[in-house]
Amino acid sequence: MKILYAGGGTGGHFYPIIAVNRAIRKIAEENQILEIKTSFLSTSPYDKDLLRQEEIQFTWIPAGKMRRYFSLLNFFDYFKMGLGIIKAILNIFIDLPDVIFAKGGYASFPALVAGRFFKIPTIIHESDSIPGRVSVWAASFAKRIAISFPESVHYFPKEKVALTGQPIWPVVLGGNAESAYATFGLQKGLPTLLVMGGSQGALKINEAVLSMLPFALRNFQIIHQTGSAHIKEVTDRAGIILEKENFKARYHPVAYLNEAQLRDVSQIVDVAVSRAGAGSIFMLASWETPTIFIPLPHAAQDHQRENAYAYAHSGGGTVMEENNLTPHLLFEEINRLISDTELRKRMKAGGRNFAKKDAAEQIAKEIINLALEHS
């Protein structure tokens, strides 16, 4: 059985593919499907070591981004896209897959065109509440469409759609509270705030957190994922701000939280502050963590804002617009959640009801079924 994955070389596409791949191999082993061959066509491998570990063969293809505004880059990207389509057609012709699983985005477009040319069954998964243009285009010929947010159903043929949620990488679930306390030097019995600005960090969120440190640390301790590009500046500034403060040991900036750290932190965090990418939303929902989402204001199609409000309707989180973000307002909202035990219980229930921890398994089963039908 041959399965082709397609999507952008970003964590938002990469980790759901990894989660689905693991679920496919588990189901195949349980059902004695002897051979599974998987490959990934994209503009970037994102994590070569993990692809190798997961036995996924990577093939690079170029793909152009079609911008909604005038740019000379659009002209050159037409050629990149054409080259990518030719390369995808040749690659698929040489090693015909039984099914294609695509995460959308422009990086998946060449593989989707090639798959349509060869009439290969295709499943697409849309992470965001407002789908991207490639996903909407591919819906006309895709056999199945998996969506993360119920609001997405209006953009696709209803008879093809299943609300699966976002596949969560299993390694961020579970964890050990004692390990988290030891790793970060945290105080037991003191409320813990987790701040995440996405994998690259978020400058505006970092600024707000730094400004509120002198009064916030009296009430709670903070694990702050700053992003690799910002860690030195944030650490240096925090050292100056907290030089004469008694509670400076309660602030723990880190460049990036790895999977083991995230898994352990999930066991002790009381409230989180986060950007509103689909991966972050579903991870925090699966943790049942009450969260204040600060959407990236210039995300494509404003998808982070739409994601945040769609999740807020479930009761699992609240939304603070970046243009309203001030240190005192952020502190007051965090403190409101930490101080209100009943509210946090309701928000935990909202996250629990929203999260679909079996998303990867649902999608994997459908991929295998289509592959078996095709082969």
Automatic annotation (TrEMBL):
Gene3D superfamilies: Glycogen Phosphorylase B
Function text: Cell wall formation. Catalyzes the transfer of a GlcNAc subunit on undecaprenyl-pyrophosphoryl-MurNAc-pentapeptide (lipid intermediate I) to form undecaprenyl-pyrophosphoryl-MurNAc-(pentapeptide)GlcNAc (lipid intermediate II).
Protein name per UniProt: UDP-N-acetylglucosamine--N-acetylmuramyl-(pentapeptide) pyrophosphoryl-undecaprenol N-acetylglucosamine transferase
Enzymatic reactions: di-trans,octa-cis-undecaprenyl diphospho-N-acetyl-alpha-D-muramoyl-L-alanyl-D-glutamyl-meso-2,6-diaminopimeloyl-D-alanyl-D-alanine + UDP-N-acetyl-alpha-D-glucosamine = di-trans,octa-cis-undecaprenyl diphospho-[N-acetyl-alpha-D-glucosaminyl-(1->4)]-N-acetyl-alpha-D-muramoyl-L-alanyl-D-glutamyl-meso-2,6-diaminopimeloyl-D-alanyl-D-alanine + UDP + H(+)
Localisation: Cell membrane
CDD domains xrefs: GT28_MurG
Residue ranges constituting the Glycosyl transferase family 28 C-terminal domain according to the UniProt record: 192-363
Principal place of residence: membrane
Residue span(s) of domain Glycosyltransferase family 28 N-terminal: 3-147
Pathway(s) per entry: Cell wall biogenesis; peptidoglycan biosynthesis
Membrane-topology annotation of the record: Peripheral membrane protein
GO biological process, one term: cell division
